[in-house]
């Protein structure tokens, strides 16, 4: 197997830099403000300028402000980052349809049938980096190896804006030499349990009593480490089935007027129904991005499938409800559908 893993660099902060180029070069800190007091909340991520000076994801905003009172503090705009992410994932789909989107900024591509060796995989990686930069001005780091875990480790080693191959020989070396806390999925708690048992490297797992290991860290993690240590790990790339499908559009100007919003809403519905490819949803969500970029939604589940006409009608009802319950103006409007009716038998013949 040849796995190519893509991890977007300091992602939320980088999107902010792309949107506001004037903040580039300065420490930028993206925050999740909880809203309880002015500065309560946590750091979601920071650019490398801020990291160099000691800022970390998860740190309380108050603490970050003690360290860097003059950094640029921005509220998290998840909706925007998700859009950029979706567009980058679509670029990645051009390189392999076997793609596992692991999070907003990570994807694994199975490129076994697309390249003949790591050299070609590396070149594909360079091409992907260039394409993403050209289209979105976002830098990413790429890791390539024989399985998902070592592809991710390769990316961790090459961050930021890097690309690295871990070939089979280096996998064998890392099994002996890499600190066990560097293994994806092994958090600090598991790592310290392992260290107490005297397990510092993957190789140590092989000389350790499996039952004892299982008791300490649980069966799933114990099995995972044994497979890795034996160099037999080969989890396939899992193409996630899309559980929901939606579309958002931006209004001409922020509004609370149903007549202004309606054409945009119906346009979003038309586009989703086109994308549905005959799948029939039972749940509809109306999704609105408010003027302050807060995202809210209202939904309804039917006992039967939702036709496009029902979707028009129901979305307007949900919009009225949302406007009655919220007094802000709407900036973007859209719909999301889920709970698809299984077209029994059909999906075996059509690729739905
Ligand atoms: N994130 C968050 N809260 C955290 C950690 C991460 O909200 N405690 C968000 C913000 C990140 C995104 O998830 O931009 C991806 O997380 P990563 O750990 O991949 O970190 P970055 O992409 O920010 O940085 P790196 O360049 O190290 O990949
Ligand atoms: Ca990541
Ligand atoms: Ca990242």
UniProtKB/TrEMBL annotation:
> What is its subcellular localisation?
Cytoplasm
- Show the PROSITE patterns listed in the entry: UMUC
Catalytic center residues: 106
Presence of keyword S-adenosyl-L-methionine: no
Q: State if DNA repair is listed as a keyword.
A: yes
**Pfam families with a match to the protein in the record:** IMS, IMS_C, IMS_HHH
Please classify the protein's predominant subcellular localization into one broad category.
Answer: cytoplasm
What the entry lists under CDD domains is as follows: PolY_Pol_IV_kappa
Write the Enzyme Commission number(s) for this entry. Answer: 2.7.7.7
Query: How many cofactor units bind, and how?
Result: Binds 2 magnesium ions per subunit.
The residues annotated as site (Substrate discrimination) are 12
Q: HAMAP family annotated for this entry? A: DNApol_IV
The text of the family note is: Belongs to the DNA polymerase type-Y family.
NCBIfam families of this UniProt entry? PRK01216.1
Its assembly, as annotated, is: Monomer.
Q: What is this protein called?
A: DNA polymerase IV
Organism, scientific name: Saccharolobus caldissimus
Gene for this chain: dbh
């Amino acid at each position: 197997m040849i796995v190519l893993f893509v991890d977007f660099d300091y992602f939320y902060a980088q999107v902010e830099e792309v949107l506001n180029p004037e903040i580039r070069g300065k420490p930028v800190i993206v925050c999740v403000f909880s809203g309880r007091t002015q500065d309560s909340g946590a750091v979601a991520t920071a650019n490398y300028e801020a990291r160099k000076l000691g800022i970390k994801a998860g740190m309380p905003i108050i603490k970050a402000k003690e360290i860097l009172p003059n950094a640029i503090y921005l509220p998290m705009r998840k909706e925007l980052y998700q859009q950029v992410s979706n567009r980058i994932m679509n670029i990645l789909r051009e390189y392999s349809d076997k793609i596992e989107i692991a999070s907003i900024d990570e994807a694994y591509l199975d490129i076994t049938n697309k390249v003949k060796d790591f050299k070609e995989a590396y070149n594909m990686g360079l091409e992907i980096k260039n394409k993403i930069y050209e289209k979105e001005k976002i830098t990413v780091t790429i890791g390539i190896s024989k399985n998902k875990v070592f592809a991710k480790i390769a990316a961790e080693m090459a961050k930021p804006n890097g690309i690295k191959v871990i070939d089979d020989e280096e996998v064998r070396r890392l099994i002996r030499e890499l600190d066990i806390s560097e293994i994806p999925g092994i958090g600090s708690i598991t790592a310290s349990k392992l260290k107490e048992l005297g397990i510092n490297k993957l190789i140590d797992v092989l000389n350790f009593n499996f039952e004892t290991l299982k008791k300490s860290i649980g069966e799933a993690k114990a099995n995972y480490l044994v497979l890795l240590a034996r160099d037999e790990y080969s989890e396939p790339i899992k193409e996630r089935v899309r559980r929901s499908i939606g579309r958002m559009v931006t209004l001409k100007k922020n509004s609370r007027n149903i007549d202004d919003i309606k054409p945009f809403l119906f346009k979003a519905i038309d586009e989703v129904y086109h994308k549905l490819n005959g799948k029939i949803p039972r749940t509809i969500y109306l999704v609105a991005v408010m003027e302050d970029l807060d995202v809210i939604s209202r939904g309804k589940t039917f006992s039967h499938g939702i036709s496009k006409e029902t979707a028009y009608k129901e979305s307007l009802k949900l919009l009225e409800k949302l406007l009655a319950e919220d007094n802000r103006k709407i900036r973007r409007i859209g719909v999301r559908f889920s709970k698809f009716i299984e077209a029994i038998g059909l999906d075996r013949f059509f690729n739905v």
